[in-house]
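Sample entry (365 residues):
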Amino acid sequence: MPFFLILMLAAYIGGNAYIFTRALQALPPMPAIFKWLFGLAYWGYALSIFLVFIFRARESADPWGHFFFQVSTGWLVFTLYMVLALVCFDLFRLLVPSFRHGFACALLVTTGVLAYGYYTYKHPQLREVDIITDRLPAGSLGLKIVGVSDVHLGLGTTRDDLSRYVDLINAQHPDIILISGDLIDNDVRPVDEAAMDEELNRLHATYGIYMVPGNHEYLSGIDACKRFIRGRTNIHLLMDSVATLPDGIRIVGRDDRTNTARKTLPELMNRIDTVVPIIVLDHQPTDLTQAERAGVDLIFCGHTHHGQVWPLNLATDRLFDVAYGYTRRGRTNIYVSSGLSLWGPPFRIGTRSELVVFRLIPAEL
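Predicted structure, serialized as tokens:
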């Protein structure tokens, strides 16, 4: 097991041991049997996250599975913020020895933070970006493009969630819909059982829906994902391939970098006339320099979730050249989305779920 995973495991177990010890200290006097029952319940919740990974291939799209998944993964974020809050109140007690309510205050603060995080997750914001290009033909009225990333359909993002997302996307009346990977979370089975293809097929865009795979499509089994997406939905899955749209627009869809044999961007673009608008879809924002050198109009990525919860966004900011948001380099517009949904814990703290609307505008307008 890599050293980093061992370190994370040790931090998680250690953090829960700290919370558990402080909880026992905060409990009023009671018979030992009740403390044992509390301990079994506490560690049952804390260790249930491992069952999510052990039984990943047996996921089923039922309410119990959804509840268990959210509680188990949610405990990761509870542990993080409860430890941070406890440390703050324990340090405060060093300054004010008479203070005796550190655990209760930490629990109250953590509950409030998680409630806020759940609200921000459930209420994605709309981002709008204008892309001005001289490559659209004269007289063109421009295009509206909706960008979506990291929906993670499965036990975390249910059919009801997807239905709300579809309504939100269709309300923008897009000409093109782009999905930058990780549409499916851990396995196709719960997506299939919940008939989520019926919701996906409600998506409507004048010139079609285009998607590239993410690392989670590979985690879920890339062959099964291809069969589901290409066989059951109206989504055009691009894997190291190029789609041609009206006005000559090219959408270059890169396979995920999980496939170490994927083509480079120059290889994919060697037969593209660069006088037409060029959009690149790439799940992970790791080859942005290639897009800049190629002079594409827009590269749209996801994957980072912008860390999802603070302070992990500080880590993603260090790991990626562009970890979130919009930037322009030369003629290339770069957008890395934080994702419409998320993986695992149902919280957004210090980040936001989002839907991105690009307006491709001719330079003369």
